[in-house]
Specification:
Layout: H1 3-6, E1 7-10, H2 14-19, E2 24-29, H3 35-46, E3 50-58, E4 62-65, E5 68-71, E6 75-82
Antiparallel strand pairs: 1-2, 2-6, 3-6, 4-5
């Protein structure tokens, strides 16, 4: 798997923006990617050193569109903690 296939997109939410002060960044990642692949991809793409990676599976939610029930897709989230002195500029 290519490093650009592992990292889908950065998550820019109010909660993830507050965590940037403690060097934690959130990303939407490929569902089959493991922590080692996420770490390698972040280090290569952003040229930083990663201290820790936490991953979690986010289940889809049930929604209705014109009275038809359906479920949004499941996805995987990774919270990456960088080593002291490293920073990622997402904006």
């Amino acid at each position: 798997m290519n490093v650009h296939d592992v990292i889908r997109e950065p998550l820019v939410t109010e909660k993830s923006t507050k965590q940037e002060k403690v060097r934690k960044y959130s990303f939407r990642v490929h569902p089959d990617a493991n922590k080692h692949q996420v770490q390698e991809a972040i280090e290569r793409i952003f040229n930083v050193k990663v201290a820790k990676v936490n991953t979690m599976l986010i289940g889809g939610k049930w929604r209705r569109v014109r009275y038809q029930p359906g479920k949004t897709a499941d996805w995987k989230k990774a919270i990456v903690t960088l080593k002291e002195g490293h920073k990622i500029e997402l904006t």
